[in-house]
Amino acid sequence: MPFALGIVVAATMAGKAMARVQPRIIAGIGSLLAAFSMVMFSRLSVDDSPAAAVLAATGGPTVGEDVSYWGQVFPYLITMAVGMGMVLAGLTPASLHRVAPEDTGVGSGLFNAAQQLGGSVGLAVLSTVSLHFAGQRTEQVIEPITTALPGDPVGVQRALLEATFTEGVTHAFLVGSFLLLIASLIVWTNTRMEPHETGTDETHLG
User: Which ranges does the record mark as transmembrane (predicted)?
Assistant: First the structure.
């Protein structure tokens, strides 16, 4: 909910700012803000040692239970939402720059299709990265976990999830931040549009 609301508020405010600010500045800053948020998510530190994972699987505190949502997650959830809202607001009018009026429907459709495709491909890439590093972590912790939980396959699976999840998503966040930096570079170097060309009053920013 905070993420969705943050995007809506940021996109609305950024849309109004485009009457004075170039879209590439808005989208460029937004992509950098989103990349920063990803890096900060990757820096969350938890005890995912085999001992802690076994304890969690046998009724103890879950790995990461001591992480403060409001202090360590929520701030960067908001900066991520604001950044993505700025990116969407900045790139939507830029996608129709110099498109003939009779072709705006097609241009808008292509932009939305690219947005959906990019989200799907991005999710697939980050999921693959997460599973790869989680698999590597599994090879490191499976022996001490199975030794600590003999004859308990369900407990072993729970402990493995506790011990490997953080490793996977940490690397996924880092790869995501790298991809956002590449996107930011593309925005800064290839978006050429002045505020008076955005047609802010007529362009749909949703």
Answer: 29-46, 67-91, 168-188
Cα–Cα distance measured from residue 130 to residue 163, given in angstroms and rounded to the nearest whole number: 13
Alpha-carbon span 176 to 182, nearest angstrom: 10
DSSP 57: H
Domain assignment present for residue 82? The answer is: yes
**DSSP conformation class of 62:** P
Q: Is residue 181 part of a domain?
A: yes
**Spatial distance between the Cα atoms of 183 and 67, rounded to a whole number of angstroms:** 30
Question: Count of domains in the chain?
Answer: 1
Q: Which two tokens stand for residue 35?
A: 């990349």
Range of the domain at 116: 2-97+106-192
Give the DSSP letter string of 61-75.
PPTTTTS-IIIIIHH
pLDDT in tens, 62-89: 998 989 999 999 999 999 999 999 999 9
H-assigned helices in the chain? 2-17, 23-42, 50-57, 74-94, 104-148, 153-190
CA distances from 119 to 69, 113, 127 (A): 25, 10, 12
CB neighbours of residue 98 within 10 Å:
8
